[in-house]
């Protein structure tokens, strides 16, 4: 049951939650220019496993590092697992063994009007503490999508039959993709990914990948996007399943510490080629 927290209780919850929230910094190429982009992630294990959104990451990275919200220094990290059709990705902080982390809520049910909390970095306002409410209930009984369906061919059915929870296909579907050149990433999302429709948050660029908490400080979702005036979060059922699949596929080493093995799908940019490319561009501008 939803209750109201006092200002002091909200401050205490923020203080408890801050150490699990991370700033993600990536360097990548945009129209032949090296740019830095910032996002949000949150830790779900003592050895520095971080959850964030997959759409934030280009396939070729020239730099990736992270810092905890309450610490000043950036640390190296690797992309170790991704589920692009679910818009979920896992990072591993290198040489981490004492990371504070948050629990993923074990219940799938969410009620209309329930208050949710978010810590993210909207438009460089790092560490903003936001509140919002649920606009459409989730009755539980979440089904994890396993087929190869994509949003680009999905026909929405919510107007014919009211669903038990929101799905990605309610947002992205064949009626939206009029221009075949647009929404390249969204077209390939799975339409049956469960999502949370929220209002009251003012999430901006930089909030993607940030945790959505209940009043107990448990994660119930992860901010992914805005749509039609609402904020949309990936449901915690998908987050739990992503972590389970990763742990199932990656065994610990002899010391009991998980190895930060980069995902081969994400390639590191060739620094020598990049420098040569930049030098050539400068020469051509003269």
TrEMBL record:
Composition bias, Basic and acidic residues: 249-262, 270-286
Renumbered residue ranges of the record's region Disordered: 249-286
SUPFAM superfamilies per record: Trypsin-like serine proteases
Family matches, as Gene3D superfamilies: 2.40.10.120
Protein name in the entry: Putative ovule protein
Classification of source organism: Eukaryota, Viridiplantae, Streptophyta, Embryophyta, Tracheophyta
